[in-house]
Amino acid sequence: MRRISKAFLVLVLATACAEKVIEEPENLIPKEKMADILNDLAILNASTSAASNKFEDSGINIMEFLYKKYGIDSIQFSQSDLYYASVPLEYQSIYENVEARLEERTKIMEERSMRKNDSIRKVNEARKDSLNAKKDKKEVVPREP
User: Fold this and answer.
1) Per the record, a Pfam family (predicted)?
2) Could you read off the pLDDT of 23-42 as tens digits, one per residue?
3) Residue percentage of the chain with pLDDT more than 90
4) Considering the entire predicted model, what is its pTM?
């Protein structure tokens, strides 16, 4: 009896998981494009937190900017986002794609920052060395009375 109830429970769960919660909208944004939009959204949101006055002063609305850039509207974005959220594995793969892109971008920016800091350090060391050389040169040359 227990095996039958377990089998029934597994069958019910399997059919419940396979059932579509939300129908796919006619104008569904493709996964790759959705990942592009969410990637840009993450970057722009981070930018606004760092420079909120600049965005406010310029009157830039992030979402309106993204709608125009990708040729979509708010309804299409909302419906697509809701649909992908109703299919957890699809949504997860989109966000993993976005996360990987952001991590790659972070890595590139850190490498650039390190190279820039190395260049600045080398320039400062060269400047310090040249100042020390001038100082040493002045000490070696005797002054005339």
Assistant:
1) DUF4296
2) 999 999 999 999 999 999 99
3) 48
4) 0.64
Print the domain residue range for 70. 30-109
Residue with tokens 């993993």: 96
Rounded Cα distance between 64 and 58, Å, is: 13
Domains contained in the chain, number: 1
> Which token pair is 119?
């260049």
Cα dihedral angle (46, 49, 54, 57), rounded to 10 degrees?
Answer: 120
Q: What is the pLDDT of residues 55-83, one digit of tens each?
A: 778 888 899 999 999 999 999 999 999 99
Query: Is residue 131 assigned to a domain?
Result: no
3-state secondary structure 13-67: HHHHHHCCCCCCCCCCCCHHHHHHHHHHHHHHHHHHHHCHHHHHHHCCCHHHHHH
